[in-house]
Amino acid sequence: MKVKELLLNKNFTLLTKNSDTEIQINDVYICDLLSWVMSHAGNQCAWITVQTHTNIVAVAVLLDMACIIIPEGIGVEESTLKKASEENLPILSTNLSTYEIASIIYESNKNVTK
Fold it and tell me: Which of 21, 31, 67, 95 could form a Cys-Cys staple with 4, CB 3.0–4.6 A?
C-alpha cells in the first residue's frame, strides 16, 4: 500500500505540505523510544509514535521511512510539521489506536500480496 492509498481512508489526515505520498509502505513499526527505533525499524515503514517533537523527523529521514503516523488525535508541534515538509516526509494524524492503524495497513498489504 502507498501512503496516498492510506489517505483514502477518511480516518487519516495528511498534516504536512509538499509530502511524497507515492511512497510504498512495506512494514509498520510501533515504538516511542527514538534510539530503539533507529536501531530496529526498517526502510519504507510506516512509523506509529506518540512522539511529536522534531527529532522524529530526523529519525524517519535517516531510516528512509514512508511516513510517520500520530495516533489517538495527538497534536503535532508546528516546528515538526515544518521540518517534515522541508524533508518531503508525510506525517499523518488519526484518532485511531495504534492497533487499529497497524491492522488497516496489514490487511491492505496482505490483500495485495495474494
Answer: 21
Instruction: Please say if the pLDDT value at position 114 is more than 80.
Output: no
More confident position, 101 or 109: 101
Question: CATH: 3.40.1390.20, 2.40.110.20, 3.40.390.30, 3.30.450.40. Which one for 3-113?
Answer: 3.40.1390.20
Overall pTM > 0.85: yes
Please give the pLDDT value at position 112: 63
What are the cell numbers at 55?
527529532
Task: Map out the domains of the chain as residue ranges.
Answer: 3-113
Long-range contacts of 56-62 (CB under 8 A, 24+ apart): 56/80, 57/83, 57/84, 57/87, 57/89, 59/34, 60/84, 60/87, 60/89, 61/87, 61/89, 62/38
